[in-house]
Amino acid sequence: MNKSVVPVEIRTVLPFNAGRAVFIGNEEKVFVIYVDESVGAAITMFINDTPKERPLTHDLIGHLMSALGAKVERVIINDLKSETYFARLIVSAENELFEKKIIELDGRPSDCIALAIQQKAPIYVSRDVWDEVEDRTDVLRQIEESDQQGGGEET
Q1: Predicted structure pTM score
Q2: How many CB atoms lie within 10 A of CB 86?
Q3: At what angle do helices 57-67 and 109-118 cross, to 10 degrees?
Q4: CB atoms within 10 A of CB 10
């Protein structure tokens, strides 16, 4: 199995049906992961550094990690089965004796992405998934062009 990864970033998050479409990619390719409304909104808030009155779930997780001496090192979208994406959250933790350990957790890509953006951690896609996903660069370009002409919602 190919273990190489491709660095990506969140290009935009747009409303889609009852949730959000998260466009992820780089200069070479863009693909879409559909997420529920609440996590999509959290991702958008983290991207835009939107202040919140009260901590949301991802804020709470981030605060808890920080209090325990842990941080998100990276996220890897590592699998795609039946149109469902899978991701790994790579966390580093240091105890009171300054012993460091790496923890790898399975998570929904949407939650992993939210935490990565919150903590300014890189996001990667496994080469296997990257090669499998359909390029949606043209779709994103059309949306961006129509937004420039008609003024649509931005991230």
Answers
A1: 0.88
A2: 17
A3: 60
A4: 20
pLDDT tens digits, 40-65: 999 999 999 999 899 999 999 999 99
Q: How far apart are CA 10 and CA 23, in angstroms?
A: 6
- Type of residue at 155: T
Q: Which residues contact 122 (CB under 8 A, 6 or more apart)?
A: 7, 74, 75, 116
- End-to-end C-alpha distance for the chain, whole angstroms: 36
Tokens describing residue 64: 């808890």
What region does 83 belong to: left with phi over 0, alpha with psi -120 to 50, or beta? left
The residue written with tokens 């605060």 in the block is: 63
pLDDT per residue as tens digits for the range 71-99: 999 999 999 999 899 999 999 998 777 78
- The number of helices, as runs of H, and strands, as runs of E, in the chain is 5, 7
